[in-house]
Amino acid sequence: MNGKEKQRLRRGRKAETMLRARTRTEKDVFSKTERLKQALETADAVLIGAGAGLSASAGFTYSGERFHRYFSDFEAKYGFHDMYSGGFYAYPTPEEHWAYWSRYIQVNRYEDAPRPVYDSLYRLISEKDYFVLTTNVDHCFQKAGFDKKRLFYTQGDYGLLQCCEPCHRQTYDNRALILRMVEEQKNMRIPTALIPRCPKCGKPMAVNLRSDDRFAEDEGWRKAAGRYADFLRRHDGMHILLWEIGVGYNTPGIIKYPFWQMTAQNPNAVYACLNSGQAVCPGAIQRQSICIDGDAGILLQALLAPEESYE
To answer: What is the per-residue pLDDT for 35?
Structure first.
């Protein structure tokens, strides 16, 4: 056997090994998907904990082609390369700050997600006794038909403004103002007359997003927190599915760690995790857990029609 033949043989063996590994992975995902489907069908209630990975799967990505499509002018002028960085940039003037943020809010709040991932999730749980706890602030759950009274947006909403202090805890819908800012901005600046100011103290307004202790927990936020607490109380000790989707480690204390703790404390609970690259759980709850590594949208579609997704 000459050198070229040996090389071809090695490549063939490597390809065969990779194929076997891929086949095992696909079978493992299929098995876990079936277990999750059964857990959905048999659970008395479903608590969904959703993070940024769910919206990313729906097409709300903050970098790459989508960033360049909407913010190439900002990138060229200010030197940042993704929407997230642009949100923290110290713009020289409020006119520039709101030019960026109005465009950002328009494309991430008032435009629909490119892919119907949230619709798929709603189809799966609409007939169940469910509740959603989410750190997402893009309003995708309500757009997909989820009951507003079954949602708790812990970190705010791109569609609301608040006093920057805040001098009071009320929030204000920003849709009309944001769309005007987008329409009337020129050279990455909005007209000065459109800069939002607090109707009570006159100080600048800010987007209602949790970044420090100045976040305004308005009446709607407090009511949602109360409904979430009531949902947990009513289902304490029951056969509940704690379903984490797209949650990373930026704020694990809101969804991930509490879900792990609730699973450990309730032998009737099932913990499920759908995540790309971070589908893990503590060893103490491994027997109660279903961890599936992959894109949330693809996995949700598999739950709706598994026989079509893994042929």
So the answer is: 96
Domain with CATH 3.40.50.1220 in the chain: 43-60+115-142+216-311
Backbone angles phi, psi at 75, to 5 degrees: -60, -45
Whether 54 contacts 136, CB under 8 Å: yes
Q: pLDDT (tens digit, 9 = 90+) per residue, 178-189?
A: 999 999 999 999
Per-residue pLDDT, 72: 98
Asked if 120 and 301 touch (Cβ cutoff 8 Å), the reply is yes
Class at the top of the CATH hierarchy for domain 43-60+115-142+216-311: alpha beta
- Cα–Cα dist 95/118, whole Å: 34
CATH class of 64-112+159-208: alpha beta
Spatial contact of 219 and 171, defined as CB atoms under 8 Å apart: no
Look at residue 148 and give its three-state secondary structure.
helix
Q: What is the pLDDT of residue 29?
A: 73
Contacts of residue 164, defined as CB under 8 A and 6 or more positions apart, other chains included, come to 198, 203, 204, 205, 206, 214
Calpha distance 98→115 (Å, rounded): 28
> What parts of the chain have a pLDDT lower than 50?
15-24, 307-311
Query: C-alpha 308: how far from its chain's center?
Result: 26
* SS3 label, residue 92: coil
What is the DSSP code (8-state) at residue 112? P
What DSSP element (H or E) covers 123? helix 117-125
CA distances from 136 to 12, 19, 55, 157, 228 (A): 46, 37, 8, 8, 16
Which residue spans of the chain are classified as CATH 3.30.1600?
Answer: 64-112+159-208
Token pair in block for residue 254: 């809101």
